[in-house]
Every structure is written in C-alpha cells, then in structure tokens.
Amino acid sequence: MVIQFNQVGYAYYGFKKVFHALKDTNLTIKNEGEFIAILGHTGSGKTTLVQHMNALLKPTSGKINILGTELPSKKKQKVNHIRQKVGLVFQFPEYQLFEINILKDVEFGPSNFKETKPFANQYAIEALKTVGIDESLYTESPFRISGGQMRRVAIAGILAMKPEILVLDEPTRGLDPQGKDDIMELFNDIHVNQNKSIVMISHDMDVVAKYAKRVIVLNKGEIVFDGTKEDLFSHPDFQSFHLDYPTPMKIMNHLTETVGLPKKLVLTEEELLNHIKEEAKLWTFVLVNTF
After folding, report:
1. Which domain holds residue 283?
2. Is 82 among the domain residues?
3. Which of 234, 245, 166 shows the shortest CA–CA distance to 208?
4. Fewer CB within 10 Å of terminal CB in the chain, N or C?
5. Element (H, E) at 288
6. DSSP code of 216?
7. 254 and 225: one domain?
8. Angle at the Cα of 266 (from 265 to 268), degrees rounded to 5?
9. Residue among 234, 255, 259 at smallest CA distance from 245
10. What is the DSSP string of 167-195?
C-alpha cells in the first residue's frame, strides 16, 4: 500500500488573491521501509504537503490515493479511517494533552476508531512502553511530568492508534540537544524494528543527515529534488536549494579550504573523524618514508 500523489495541487483562496501552495505534485510513498525528510524554506509547501497525507487537506486539483482511498471523490467520502492509518504528530504535540491521567490520554486516540477501540487499553500500554514511560506514571496527570515526558506521552497517543505511516512535523523543535537525540532515536527504533515508514518535516540538517534515507525538497510548491541524502548534499547545484549543510560537512568544507584536507562527503561526526584519521595515517606514512 502507498500514498500516491497524482498531479496534486492545492490553493488557498483569499479575498482577491489565490496562493498556490502545491503545484502539480507527483509523489509515491510506501507504507514500509521509508524514512523521508521533507525540506524547504518557510512557505515552500511542506506542511500543506504532509497535511494531504492524512486527509486534513484535500487537493483542489489532481488526485491523491491514501492507502487505497482516493481523494477527492465524486461522492461524499469518510476519511476518519485515514487518520488512524496515517498518524500525524504536530509540532509541540504535548500541547494537545488534556485527560486526567496519562493512560486515559493515550487511550483517547484508539478509542475513536472502530478497528482499535476494543484494544484501546492494550494499545495504550504498549505505546507507553515503546516511548519509555514508566508504569508508575500511568495514573499521574500529564501536566505533572517533565516537558520531554509530555512529548513522549503525546507521541504514544499517536502510536496507540497503530498507524501504518508516521508523519512528523518538526519533531525536534524546542528540544535541547539531548532531548533531540533521544526523540529521534525513539523514532528510528520504531522505523527499524517495525519497518514503519516515517515522513518528517525538518529544518535541522544534522537530523536529516543522520536519519533520513530519502529527501524531498520543495520550493514554491514544487518538488525540486527527490533522492538520497548523499545525492542531495553532493549535488552540484546544492546552493540553489537554499539549504544548509549538516555540521560535519561544514567542518569538512572549512578544513578543505584552510588546510587542504581532501574533500569527501561526510554526514556524521564519526564519518568526519574517520576521514581525518585516514588522511593523518597517510601523511604519517609519507613523512616516515620521505625523511
């Protein structure tokens, strides 16, 4: 099963102006094995794109097929089941917590869908274990735990609905470096262990470089790049995408310019350090055998 965009366009209508947020978008996303980063400057159409994936928005032109349901349809179409199959985690999801205790909050999502309602309690407990919330906290108010724990509880509420695809809108926004690493390791574990597809909007190139397998770049509502992160960061016209390099690549470029270190695509700190060590070994060998 896939999410298939076919010539999808979306326009916001103002009093006298029309803003085309998406233009003739063609895109296929599998429900297994994908880890996709959606990139682009503010206003490029990223949020509009992902909100089509669980039918929060419907195309004003073209068609989208979401795991077997085509929209817009000729007759009135129920879309509630789509929102169970495609779980959308908004920015600052902890702001959506509202129940009297943590377990009830996580049970709320699956309780609203026919397929998961009979198992709401079981799925909620499973989800809370997945995100690392201790059982001793289940009866606590979600407003009496730390900010990081609140975000994990909110994410558990989406996981408890048993979505086939997870869509994340800037999942690390507002987190400190350790919190960012922890939350991304959580999503990566879900991706690896459950083979679940993840689609992520992000402005953090370090996160993209470490976790994404595929990258889609938007500009003015159009897809201008769709490929691997390696192809993106080594693209000859990378500057035209108006994106930043990940930190290891910035350091690599600086060392190339200042001390002549041979340039190589490095996307993680480990790759950068290994490259420096290899070059140091080579120069040591040359010096020893020269003098």
Report:
1. 245-290
2. no
3. 245
4. C
5. helix 269-290
6. E
7. no
8. 160
9. 234
10. EEESTTTT--HHHHHHHHHHHHHHHHHH-
Query: At which of 134, 163, 192 does a domain end?
Result: 163
Enter the pTM of the model.
Answer: 0.91
Give one word for 40, left, alpha or beta, with left for phi > 0 and alpha for psi -120 to 50.
left
One domain for residues 120 and 252 = no
DSSP class of residue 143 equals T
One digit per residue, the tens of pLDDT, for the chain of length 291 reads 799 999 999 999 888 889 999 999 999 999 999 999 999 999 999 999 999 999 999 999 999 999 999 998 877 878 889 999 999 998 888 888 999 999 999 999 999 999 999 999 999 999 999 999 999 999 999 999 998 899 999 999 999 999 999 999 999 998 889 999 999 999 999 999 999 999 999 999 999 999 999 999 999 999 999 999 999 999 999 999 999 999 999 999 999 999 888 999 999 999 999 999 988 877 665 555 665
In DSSP terms, 69 is beta-bridged to 66
Q: Which of 148, 163, 178 is the C-terminal boundary of a domain?
A: 163
Cis peptide before 246 (omega within 30 of 0): no
